[in-house]
Write a structure and sequence with these properties.
about 250 residues, 2 domains, disordered N terminus, disordered C terminus, binds iron/sulfur cluster
Length: about 250
């Protein structure tokens, strides 16, 4: 998952915020097409989910999945990860950016899980954020996916989509997160992160959004929409059909 450090990325041009009925309709469109969206990181349990998300900062999910295939086969619990040791972890993840720091964090968080949490991934934010390498965004992803909590993790894709569309204008990821949490209808919050990240990755791309194929263009307030067929004529390209593994961080 692309990383987004607080206050680093300049916010796109500000747009007025969508009205509540527009936001409800927009998420209704996502829900109608993809009622149960899933992320693209591979994991087998809450621990491997946590490790995969930690590894995904400034890396593609596809790149992380390639590395974790061997890593998780060797170590899918904190105890096994500690047994693997720093060199063993590093050997599995050296294809990922920042692998030295990430390997240290994976080892240290595994040790802390053993020492303080009975080798279990905790299901609350404060405990999660006390783990090495785990910030608010990672905690939000784990709380959402592993524990079913209505959190919304804002990465570079959600930040862009939230601002472009007028869904959740904000100058920082936290502002966008707060705007989303306060305005997305309760029934849609659990899946909002995945709908928006997939939308940002495959349709509302950074350099050239695919507006003609966009199912929410009718509500979007982005002034520089790309030209093409009207929504009714547009081929509603499914993100799933475009997951060809070639995307870069902002694609
Ligand atoms: S209409 Fe274009 S800019 Fe707006 S959300 Fe869709 S792809 Fe993004």
């Amino acid at each position: 998952m692309p990383n987004l450090t607080e206050n680093v990325m300049p916010a796109p041009k500000a747009h007025s915020k969508l009205k509540p009925d527009e936001i409800a309709a927009l998420f209704g469109a996502f829900a109608a097409r993809d009622p149960a969206p899933r992320g693209e990181l591979n994991y087998t349990n809450p621990f491997t989910l946590l490790v995969a998300v930690v590894l995904s900062a400034q890396a593609t999910d596809i790149g992380v999945n390639k590395a974790t295939r061997g890593l998780f086969a060797a170590a899918d619990t904190p105890d096994k990860m500690v047994s693997l040791g720093l060199d063993g972890i590093t050997g599995h993840i050296r294809t990922i950016g920042l692998f030295r720091t990430k390997a240290k964090n994976v080892l240290a968080l595994s040790e802390k899980l053993i020492a303080e949490f009975g080798s279990e991934v905790p299901g609350n934010r404060e405990a999660l954020e006390s783990l090495p390498g785990v910030g608010r965004k990672t905690a939000n992803v784990v709380l959402n996916i592993a524990f079913g909590q209505p959190t919304i993790a804002v990465d570079t894709h959600l930040f862009r989509v939230g601002n472009r569309t007028g869904l959740a204008p904000g100058r920082t990821p936290r502002e966008v997160e707060d705007a989303l949490v306060s305005s997305v209808p309760e029934r849609y919050v659990l899946h909002a992160h995945h709908w928006l990240i997939l939308h940002g990755r495959y349709v509302c791309k950074a350099r050239k959004p695919d507006c003609p194929a966009c199912i929410i263009r009718g509500w979007c307030r982005f002034e520089d929409k790309t030209a093409g067929a009207s929504p009714g004529e547009a081929k509603t390209t499914s993100p799933a059909r475009k997951r060809d593994g070639t995307q870069t961080l902002d694609d």
